[in-house]
Amino acid sequence: MIIAGNVLALGGFSSNLLALWTLQGKPIRWGPPALIVVATTFFACWFTLADPNTAGLRAGTSAAAFALSAMLAREMLFQFKGGGRAHMLGGGLAVLICLITLARAVSALRGDPLALGALALDWDERVFFVVSYIVATMSALNFAMLSNDAFNGELRRMASSDPLTGLPNRRCLVERGADEARRARRYRRPLAVAVIDLDHFKAVNDAFGHAAGDEALLETARVCRTALRDVDLFARLGGEEFVALLPETGPAEALAAAERLRAAIALIGVAASDRRLTASVGVACLQDGESFDFLLARADEAMYRAKKAGRNRVCVADAERVAADQ
Predict the structure, then answer these.
(1) Are the C-beta atoms of 308 and 285 separated by less than 8 Å?
(2) For the chain, what percent of residues have pLDDT higher than 70?
(3) Which one from 240, 241, 259, 320 is the annotated catalytic residue?
(4) What are the strands, taking DSSP E only, across 231-309?
(5) How far is CA 277 from CA 30, 148, 184, 212, in A?
(6) Active-site residue 320, yes or no?
(7) Rounded CA gap, 6 and 117, in Å?
(8) Which residues are paired to 281 by β-bridges?
(9) CA 66 to chain centre
């Protein structure tokens, strides 16, 4: 019973650590927890069967539990990825286990030797196991909270991102664009939008299949995101239409960014053929008192003018401002 109890307890700590790595999407490192469980089994067998010694048994198993709890505490308090505060509670519980196991080890080494049959009557052992069971129950509830936080985070990500490209979707663009427009109006700072539509994209799907079309969209997302600044937002509106939100960008800089995007797209090949993508781009800059929705509509209108003008080009909604700025 002593051997089984200690091994199961350390196995439970190891399972918590493995579950946390899985929840975080991190690589599973089997080595450390497996080594600690093996060491616990050795301590329990040796100090119970080969050389009965309650001090060695308690100190050895406490050291193993301390090591696993310390790993859990580090993961939850310092290396946790994600929102919510449940991981802080989990980290606090892991720290509490560290303190309890440390106190148990010190008690074992300083106290008088006990017979194996007397362990159940020792008050230090009783307190240790009662507190351990309470913390284990709280930890189980905490993992439910962690899972709920992760699930809610995934729902938020799905609600604001395009499932194919991973780019922000229309909802995210409109929310961020409205915020940027309010900020630009308040501080009288420039803001620009570029609407990008891939030319003849239906013909790409018809000629090469939807898998090739999806690959072209993914490559468009990649090259355009690379061509923009970190502060810019590149979103997919749907189909083959994309939008670049360009904070702190005046008319001349917006035109240059749009040309950079058009040129980057023109280098994308389709399905290992000699065909290249092209795009029509419309650019608009925020005007006094203008909402983001109206700014986006003007950029979209400029994009359609680029289509009518022959495609694979950039049109500006307020060309006179660009000329004056240059």
Answers:
(1) no
(2) 85
(3) 240
(4) 233-238, 241-247, 279-285
(5) 47, 42, 34, 12
(6) no
(7) 15
(8) 196, 314
(9) 29
